Amino acid sequence: MTEETKGRERLPRWMKMQMPKGESYSKVKNLVSKHHLHTICTSGNCPNIGECWNRGTATFMILGDICTRNCKFCGVKTGKPLAPDAEEPRRIAESVQLMQLKHAVITSVDRDDLPDLGAGFWAETIREVKQLNPETSIEVLIPDFQGKAELIQRVVEEKPEVISHNMETVERLTPQIRSAAKYRTSLEVLRCIAASGVIAKSGIMLGLGETEEEVLQVMDDLRAVGCKVMTIGQYLAPTLNHIQVVEYITPEQFDRYRVIGLEKGFSFVESNPLVRSSYRADAHAEAK
């Protein structure tokens, strides 16, 4: 028995995932397989894939699969990325059409190697998806673009329904788990999004050693910059080489955070051990 296997066996009972099922799920799964479509849902082994695909939602990643950053929580490869694929925006749009999605979520690796940090490619992808799928709502989960407002604005101008940027953790732990992103920079990214009139969304992971007081401070900081939607999920280490879990937070505590977040004024708070950034994302496009 490997250490990784033993680690999985130590997961608490509430972290056990159900096998995905459902007519819509099966239909989307067959389309993905037949047309060799790439989604984060499958490559990331998302625990909510069945629920999301049955709701007509899926998540795609653009700008390759190699990140220029090396965050201690993330399982994405890091190194020198390949040049952006000029055909990718069109392929993403066609994938959304083939899957007949009601709501598409798009994310990316960090591309600090590009002159515009990938903002132009982001804008083109959103345009392509909207042109081919005018009835599909879009959420984009963007990097921080080094806090450059003019680059964030290029994404805003394409009018996705939701723009998300994850805080990932509390301020004290940010330097330990994020290789380049800064807590205050991320808050300013969200402030810029909210000020533009687009729904601003963010998320954090629990179980890294944060305190309840620190989690509540993140909520206050997010509300102060106009963030309307928050996701809270349990951190799981991708490998033994990543930062390890300090604590498994109980479902009861997650529910407590959900109630507190709604009391603080968020339109939606998705808080559950198995929640990931795109969980129930279609509903968030209606945030008020």
Q: What low-confidence regions span 5 or more consecutive residues with pLDDT below 50?
A: 1-8
Strand content: 5-15%
Structural class: alpha/beta
Q: What is the helix tally?
A: 12
Total number of beta strands:
9
CATH class: Alpha Beta
- Please identify which CATH superfamily we are dealing with: Aldolase class I
CATH topology, by name, is TIM Barrel
The span between the termini is 50 Å
From the alpha-carbon coordinates, what is the Rg to the nearest angstrom?
18 Å
What's the pLDDT, averaged over the residues?
90
Widest sheet, order of strands: 1-4-5-6-7-8-9
Global geometry = globular
User: Secondary-structure element sequence?
Assistant: HHHHEEEHEHEHEHHEHEHEH
Q: From the 3D coordinates, which CATH architecture would you assign? A: Alpha-Beta Barrel
Helix content: 25-40%
Q: How would you sum up the major sheet?
A: 7 strands, parallel
What number of domains?
A: 1
What does this molecule look like?
With 288 residues, the chain is α/β, with parallel strands linked by helices. 43% of the residues are buried. It has a single domain, classed as Aldolase class I (TIM Barrel), CATH 3.20.20. It starts with a helix and ends with a helix. Residues 1-8 have low confidence and may be disordered. Helices cover 38% and strands 15% of the residues. The chain has twelve helices and nine strands.
Name the descriptors.
alpha/beta, 12 helices, single chain, 288 residues, TIM Barrel
Question: What's the short story on this structure?
Answer:
With 288 residues, the chain is of the alpha/beta class. The protein has twelve helices and nine strands. It has helices spanning 3-9, 23-34, 40-43, 49-54, 88-98, 119-132, 149-156, 174-177, 183-195, 212-224, 251-263, 281-284, and strands at residues 57-62, 66-67, 77-78, 103-108, 137-141, 162-164, 199-206, 229-234, 268-271.
